Amino acid sequence: MSLRAKSKYVQPHKPAPNAGMTLYCSAEAVTCLWVRLVLAEKDVEGARFEIQRPGRISEDLLLLNPTQTLPTLADRDLVIYPARVIAEYLDERYPHPPMMPAEPAQRARLRMALDRLELDFFPTLRLVETATPAAAKAARKRLIDLIVSSAPLFPNRGWFLGLDHSLVDSAWTALFWRAAELKLELPPSADPVRRYAQRVFMRAPFQRVVPPR
User: Fold this and answer.
1) What is the arrangement of strands in the sheet containing 72-75, beginning at the earlier edge strand?
2) What is the band of 17 on the pLDDT scale with cuts at 50, 70, 90?
3) Domain of residue 166, residue span
4) Which residue stretches of 2-82 are H helix?
5) pLDDT per residue over 97-139, tens digit each?
6) 87 and 108 assigned to the same domain
7) Domain containing residue 68: CATH number
8) N or C, which end of the chain is more exposed by having fewer CB within 10 Å?
9) Residues 110, 148: one domain?
10) Which of 59, 93, 127 is the last residue of a domain?
11) What mean pLDDT comes out for the span 168-195?
12) DSSP letter string over 73-130?
């Protein structure tokens, strides 16, 4: 199955002045794509993106966040990381459209799904991207198995938790796009995932972040 900015360098003595919001991110990391998708869903105007390249971390980021965690969000005097904290902050900072369910039970389901993504899916994807060939091959199989096992969770219509697109939908979207980029081939038993991925890839916010090729 096929699922299918330059860094701005500044003087080293202080971060560049910025009255708005800046997201420091990598071009390909799934967590960075997740946060960019949340920003697109919120239609945040004026947000800047500072793409960090390996070995070329900007002076601003080094001063704002010495751990160099990506993504890192700078919103005026506030520096926020990691990705999940940024995503929840953006949902509270820009409440429309809401990306967290109103009902406590649905919020719990969302948080459990995000936990699973962060504990299992994202680390396995990272191994596919960065490990030695043998380890990457094993990680590819593991990621395919994880996706196949999750297929029954995806509805034929709507989004992961129902009719409203949520933070976990943006996280799944980022994962499935990176899986498509890495040419993961999924079996027919993953058809619910395929259909879901096709729907999220057609959303206007996604296409603003990842233009059609």
Assistant:
1) 48-51, 21-25, 72-75, 78-80
2) very low
3) 104-205
4) 30-42, 59-64
5) 999 999 999 999 999 999 999 999 999 999 999 999 999 999 9
6) no
7) 3.40.30.10
8) C
9) yes
10) 93
11) 97
12) EEETTEEE-SHHHHHHHHHHHS-SS--S-SSHHHHHHHHHHHHHIIIIIHHHHHHHHH
